[in-house]
UniProtKB/TrEMBL annotation:
Similarity annotation: Belongs to the DPH1/DPH2 family. DPH2 subfamily.
Designated name of the protein: 2-(3-amino-3-carboxypropyl)histidine synthase subunit 2
Cofactors (names): [4Fe-4S] cluster
GO molecular function: 2-(3-amino-3-carboxypropyl)histidine synthase activity; iron-sulfur cluster binding; metal ion binding
Any one biological process term the GO annotation gives: protein histidyl modification to diphthamide
Superkingdom of the organism of origin: Eukaryota
């Protein structure tokens, strides 16, 4: 695929031109930075043509300023609003893998990319496995494979698995604006009053699911536990988020790089057991450090205040730290903290804390450890919005 197709040059230029933005930040992960100069040149040319088409001028007087951003302070998957604010930009164009976390102050446009996929083989593997499973299938995928889902649907329709019920997730709109509610952006249904369903809510309201940029609805009376989850993509943070959130579901993953099915998820089960172990350790803590893992995801300040309140009401002390990406050396400077709570986006929330001197847990796990949720939930939760109300982790 050519550069203009992979990086959606027409769509991005149309978004910038249509909104009248004049200062635009282009955020790249390290692996895509090599293409940044060609993308900037292509965007400048396309914007000039758009301006010439709409105004009749050559566009020189109203050139859009494009700023390339890389080496983000926190995760590459989040929009770097802090970096963009340094040059006073109007919006951010985010390239590459993303968690689709809602922004706080700036509108964002997500360019997901188009990874190569052997569609006929993927459809064949999907049909072969679904016939064995004997369950309805929910097809999820990494966002970089969204461009191929229509072809997969068509290919599956020509094969001998037509009697199996299929449900395909859709991708959310590539545009996020700060005015939009950040409820239901990652994981569970959105209730009719605009609040997010918590991790233990049933699906009786037939509300759509949303997680990591994917959204889908199930037929009335169906539960997600009734489905086999067929995931197309890599074993990355997006897949970890899905497998942890829906850990009671049977999951199989099609590895598009190796062209094979993976259904051994013993590692995910070990991770889940370890998370429960860390929760039990956290219950004995007396001094808790709150690690700020994002300065841009909508709701992060509310979550920090909510954690402070939770810790105080549990009769413990809380300290807040802003240090960029945590590592064992940084946290070793605070040996008085018995446990740390990492407030970050859904896809960077799980830190392997084996090398840390103290456990590092998520806000959801803190709610279980410090009193809001006394029993084990069927699903893990990583989204701020799901903890917005008192006791939202479980009821």
């Amino acid at each position: 695929m050519d550069l203009e197709s992979v990086y959606e040059i027409d769509l991005v230029a149309g978004f910038i031109s249509g909104k009248g933005f004049r200062r635009v930040a282009l955020q790249f992960p390290d692996e895509l930075l090599k293409d940044s100069t060609r993308i900037v040149s292509a965007l400048h040319e396309k914007l000039r043509l758009f301006n010439q088409l709409h105004t009749g001028s050559n566009g020189d007087a109203k050139d859009v300023r494009l700023y390339v951003m890389a080496d983000t302070t926190y995760g590459n998957c989040c929009v770097d609003e802090v970096g963009a604010s340094h040059v006073n930009t109007d919006c951010v164009i985010h390239y590459g893998h993303t968690c689709f976390s809602p922004t706080s102050t700036l509108p964002a446009f997500f360019v997901l990319g188009k990874a190569s996929l052997n569609v006929p083989l993927c459809a064949q593997k999907l049909c072969e496995y679904t016939i064995k499973a004997g369950k309805p299938i929910l097809v999820l995928y990494g966002l970089e494979y969204a461009h191929a889902i229509t072809e997969i649907k068509a290919s599956v329709g020509t094969q001998s698995c037509f009697k199996v019920e299929f449900c395909y997730a859709d991708t959310m709109s590539p545009v996020i604006t700060p005015s939009e509610t950040f409820c239901s952006m990652n994981g569970q249904p959105k209730l009719s009053d605009g609040q997010c369903a918590n991790s233990c809510t049933t699906e009786e309201n037939n509300a759509p699911y949303r997680i990591g940029g994917l959204t889908w609805s199930l037929p009335v009376g169906h539960r997600i536990e009734d489905y086999l989850l067929f995931y197309v993509g890599s074993d990355d943070s997006a897949f970890a988020n899905i497998s942890m959130t829906y850990n009671t579901c049977e999951i199989v993953r099609y590895d598009a790089t190796e062209d094979l099915l993976v259904n051994d998820f013993s590692q995910q089960k070990r991770i889940l057991k370890r998370r429960y172990f860390l929760i039990e350790k956290a219950k004995d803590a007396s001094i808790i450090g709150i690690l700020v893992g994002t300065l841009g995801v909508a709701g992060y300040l509310h979550m920090i205040h909510q954690m402070k309140d939770l810790i105080t009401r549990a009769g413990k002390k809380a300290y807040t730290f802003v240090m960029g990406r945590p590592n064992p050396a940084k946290l070793a400077n605070f040996p008085e903290c018995d446990v740390f709570i990492y407030v970050s986006c859904a896809q960077t929330a799980l830190l392997d804390s084996k090398e840390f001197l103290a456990p590092v847990i998520t806000p959801f796990e803190a709610m279980i450890a410090f009193g809001r949720c006394r029993r084990r939930c069927r699903r893990w939760s990583f989204c701020f919005s799901e903890h917005h109300r008192e006791g939202s982790a479980c009821s």
